[in-house]
Design a protein that fits this description.
This protein has two helices and no strands. It is mostly helical. It has one domain. α1 runs antiparallel to α2. The radius of gyration is 61 Å and the shape is rod-shaped. The termini are far apart.
Amino acid sequence: MSKEDDDQEIEKRTFWAPTPESRLLALFEKLSARVEANDQESRRRDEENQRNISFILEQQAQFTSDMQQMREIQAQADEKWERRWGRTEESIRALLTIAEVHNQEITALADGQARLTEAQERTDRQMAETDERLNALVNVVERFISERRNGGSSAS
């Protein structure tokens, strides 16, 4: 009922009620009804508020639990990442060491190749000198033989 309906009801009772006591009684009844209605509404709101508070507390508890799980998962992921990064770093250092060794070997091979090239050039010069000497010897021997033939035939 609305307030206007209640007021009209009171007026009807008052109009028909012959005494002020009956009017007061009607007002008290109306006031009592309103108090009871307010009390019921208040209890309903209290229950609803309590449900809301319970829901919020449950959600907060769930959120706290979920956050703890996330922290644990994050800690595990961080630990895995640290281990993998450590292994990766070790692997990179090992590869760097291997690359340095290979660089030293390549440098040694290049130095050896340079010495071999120098030795080959010396050998080629010596072979050329030997060829010149051998050719000179062959020329001397051929002249000697040829003179002997020429000289031997003219002396005989």
